[in-house]
Design goal:
Elements: H1 19-27, H2 34-48, E1 59-64, E2 69-74, H3 84-88, E3 118-124, E4 130-137, H4 138-145, H5 154-161, E5 162-168, E6 176-182, H6 194-204, H7 217-227, E7 236-238, E8 241-242, E9 250-252, E10 258-271, E11 274-284, E12 299-304, E13 307-309, E14 329-334, H8 352-395, H9 412-429, H10 434-449
Parallel strand pairs: 1-7, 12-14
Antiparallel strand pairs: 1-2, 2-6, 3-4, 3-6, 4-5, 7-8, 9-10, 10-11, 11-14, 12-13
Length: 450
């Protein structure tokens, strides 16, 4: 029997309840610091939309622990008064798809709702005097969610806890988007820990290299924009202090030992005969020992739009031993439409390209670096064993008095090696200053004279 409109089954009615909003806020952003990434991501997209690039674009993050307030603002594109209501009042809808922009799911601005009592969004487009404002009663939302007998649909709950308005008293020039979170709190108040926030932003945000401490930053910055559709670094300030990526010419292995970067190696990741990513790794002098976690640089980091995906351990599985990834510093910048970050940006959406991407890194990067690390580790262990044998010989009374004849000469290579070690320790132990520079210059001249 054929089904007709008269006897066909009734179409199911889709209903979205208020608990979906909890999933999109507290459930999505269980890591408090992730809210900074979401707002910075939107700011970077807003700045990229500006036609004029000669303006001093910046993102300001201001923490006020005593007031329990966080403010994040940018002077990017802003939102026109004509479309601001449809954008600010929409959930899970975005006009950024297929525009080479970082955010595309329309939920990023909800991040702060889970950690504040009130969230206010203010925006204005250039050439307009109208400012559009949306307010969220986050405390009221939690009260509704904790009262099961008051079940509301998603639309009903949003209408009850939000307020949209416009004011017509601003200067026409200038554009901006500003987020203000009031009544902010999180587990152990990490969200206000300025050192934790600074460390987090330096690793995850699209900030510049510190060219005073990382000699290869300019070379990377000149190369990557030529390869990628979406790449840029942005001036981000935390309480008026600029944030930089943490890379330096030196790396710490432990409290008393270190290594330094001799050069960088640039590479490409090919998937199905197409270039899918571009990367660089720092080539260490010794490659002995893992870089300490406190450095914030260990591990090859994966980035999309110059924003971190996952963390420093995302590529551990691409090495023969997971720990080998911690021996390396470097970045892989993905530029492939099929490699899509998931909602939490802790990995990519599962598909065939994700598998091919990780396989390519394992084959082209992980295996060769693992082999080098093991080889240098064996050489180091052999040398260490020889040194131990020499110490035993000394304890048995071997005569080690230096030769007294006129033909005695020092070992030039050994002296050069010691000078290199001294230079490394000075770089690791002391910040950049005039005294350090003078010492390093003198050692450099002594080294060259040998």
């Amino acid at each position: 029997m054929e089904l007709t409109l008269e006897n066909s089954p009734a179409q199911p009615k889709i209903k979205t309840g208020m608990y979906l909003l909890e999933t999109l806020t507290a459930g999505m952003y269980n890591e408090p610091l992730a809210i900074y990434r979401e707002y910075i991501q939107n700011s970077a997209d807003s700045i990229d939309l500006m036609a004029k690039k000669d303006k001093d674009f910046r993102v300001n993050i201001d923490l006020e622990p005593m007031k329990r307030r966080i403010t994040i603002s940018d002077n990017g594109y802003g939102i026109s008064s004509e479309i601001s209501e449809s954008i600010l009042c929409s959930l899970g809808d975005s006009n950024k798809i297929n525009k080479n922009l970082r955010g595309f799911r329309g939920i990023g601005r909800l991040g702060g709702i889970a950690f504040s009592d009130k969230a206010t969004f203010q925006t204005k487009a250039d050439g307009e005097k109208i400012e559009s404002v949306q307010e969220w009663d986050c405390k009221g939302l939690r009260e509704y969610l904790n009262t099961p007998q008051k079940k509301l649909s998603l639309t009903e709950i949003v209408k009850k806890i939000t307020n949209y308005k416009q004011t017509n008293n601003k200067k026409a020039s200038g554009s901006y988007f500003k987020v203000t979170l009031d009544g902010v709190k999180s587990f152990r108040n990490y969200i206000f820990d300025i050192n934790k926030v600074k460390n987090y932003l330096s690793q995850i945000a699209p900030v510049p290299f510190d060219l005073n401490n990382f000699s290869y930053g300019q070379e990377i910055d000149e190369w990557l924009p030529k390869q990628l559709r979406t790449y840029g670094s942005y001036n981000i300030f935390l309480n008026n202090n600029p944030i930089f990526k943490p890379y330096r010419d030196t790396v710490k292995i432990n409290k008393s030992a270190g290594d330094y970067i001799e050069s960088i190696k640039k590479f490409e990741i090919i998937i199905k005969d197409k270039k899918a990513a571009y990367g660089w790794i720092g080539l260490r002098k010794k490659m002995i020992g893992a870089i300490t976690r406190g450095e914030g640089t260990s591990g090859i980091r994966v980035r999309v739009g110059n924003i971190l995906i996952g963390d420093s351990h995302l590529l551990d599985g691409c090495f023969r031993e997971d720990r080998f990834n911690s021996y390396i510093i470097g970045e892989i910048h993905v530029d492939c439409p099929q490699l899509i970050p998931n909602s939490r940006r802790d990995d990519f959406i599962d598909n065939d390209y994700k598998t091919l991407f990780y396989n390519a890194i394992e084959r082209e990067i992980g295996f060769s670096l693992s082999k080098e690390i093991r080889q240098k580790s064996r050489i180091f262990s052999t040398q260490k064993a020889k040194n131990s044998t020499k110490k035993i010989s000394i304890s048995k009374g071997v005569n080690l008095k230096p030769r007294q004849d006129n033909n005695f000469s020092y070992n030039s290579n050994s002296t050069k090696q010691k000078i290199e070690e001294i230079v490394t320790m000075i770089k690791i132990s002391y910040e950049d200053c005039q005294t350090r520079s003078k010492i390093l210059d003198k050692l450099k001249h002594l080294h060259e004279a040998m």
